[in-house]
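note to self: dont lose this again. the chain is below, predicted strucutre after it. 361 aa total, dont forget to put it in the shared folder this time
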Amino acid sequence: MTTPTAARIAIVGAGPGGLTCARILQRHGIAATVYDRDAGPDTRDQGGSLDLDVADGQHALREAGLIDGFHRLARPEGQEWRFADTRGMLRSHSVPSAGDRSRPEIDRGQLRHLLLESLAPGTVQWGRRLTCATADGELHFADGESIRFDLVVGADGAFSRVRPALSAATPLYTGNTFLEAHFDDVEHRHPEIAELVGNGNFHAGDGKRALFGQRSSGGHIRVYVMQHVPADWIAAAGLRIDDTEALRSRLDRAYATWSPRMRRLFLDNDGPYFDRPLYALPVPHTWAHNPSVTLLGDAAHLMPPIGVGVNLAMLDACELALALARSATVAEAVAAYEETMLPRSTSYAAKLDGALDHLLG
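---
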């Protein structure tokens, strides 16, 4: 039986979960290699802001020895929530108390760089596109190379290439989609939107559609236009994602009963829109124990994006890494990790099933 310190461990995916797992393993003297399809850490935009809970994401960063670095970057003021009606009038407003660090916001890109900078040089191999993984721990890459490992950790997100080695489950479209709009230098270029969204998060819905605004650092705001539509709604309407003006016109008609002030949240954006159809894995999603392969984060339990995903991914990563550090064999560690993770993810997924429809209200 292979001991964790002697094992060859591969982590597929350099997101928060995969990098957290690698970092905690290294702190305990266990080597791991992270493989990611991106050409480099700054190849693509990492997305908006994340709220890390003290019991989950922050707990993982504490085990990683990075909690102080996190608090230097995090924005406690980002815990503010504003809920408005379709006229833009506030219905409720939550402002964090002084010193509240229970769930501060941090930009995804900042969190990724914090984790990357903590790893030993060469830990992440960029530009390694995985084609498939086998149940006995072999990875097959697009460049033709195949490598066998004692443990493969699938941290490669919603459409994981590792998951089929354990499970036949595939993500299902939830019936809801986000159309993402960006606003830059908001205090100067978009002061009305900056005032409307505030320091953290903003939400409004009318039962059929909704808007979410989210502040990031550096004067950026992202707005997500949530609609209950087919996944291919843009093509079905004869439109293209890069036809910004045509999409603006369609959204303007769809939200015609909303006030002009609210429609600015998706009509005055800088640059193109980004289509984000929302998927989830069936509930429950489990698999038979395999000592050579396991999953964490969205690869294991893809759920609606309601502030749970990254926290669970980082908690998964922390618990798997600590199980490897504390177990005599890799097989024992994987079994101990899954014994806790699978029931927890099933419980969360059951609670969030159908939650997106509720957010339209």
